[in-house]
Amino acid sequence: MAYVRKNTTAEPNSPSPLLVVSRPDICAHPCIQVLDAMHPGETCRIVNFYHDIRDKSSLETLLALDLEATTPTLVIRDFNTHSRTWSPTGTDPSSWARKLEEWTVGNLLTLANDPGVITRQGGDNE
């Protein structure tokens, strides 16, 4: 599910120039949502991914995506993955981390958060 503000507080009755379109034609997996956020003359693709570690098809489907190099893209959400690239020092990497890292490099993605800084802490020090 995605929410978009349809108008602005300055002009609450005027429609927003931002249009968000779901792209199930790019990926139809239940753990992956692809959206195009369009503003006149610009498009940004958002790939919202949840890595369900009990369902190997979620990661396999993400890794099969070949992102368009000419479309600015943001890949976000919950990867349930530890990696030497982004996890705190001393954290054992997930067995699939290398495949995910290779996919990001192959799709010309760069890490947006600070390496080594925890982005979410679960209960009981997860």
Task: Give structural notes.
This protein is globular. Helix content is 15%, strand content 21%. By secondary structure, the chain is α+β, with helices and mostly antiparallel strands.
Q: Number of DSSP strands?
A: 4
SS strand fraction: 15-25%
The low-pLDDT segments are none
- Helix percentage range: 10-25%
The number of helical elements comes to: 2
Overall body shape: globular
- Order of SSEs, N→C? EEEHEH
Task: Please report the distance between the alpha carbons of the first and last residues.
Answer: 26 Å
Widest sheet: strand order?
Answer: 1-2-3-4
Count of distinct structural domains: 1
Biggest beta-sheet profile: 4 strands, mixed
Oligomeric composition of the shown chains = single chain
- Summed over residues and divided by their number, the pLDDT gives a mean of 89
- Helix/strand class: alpha+beta
Brief write-up:
This protein is 15% helix and 21% strand. The chain has 126 residues and is α+β, with helices and mostly antiparallel strands.
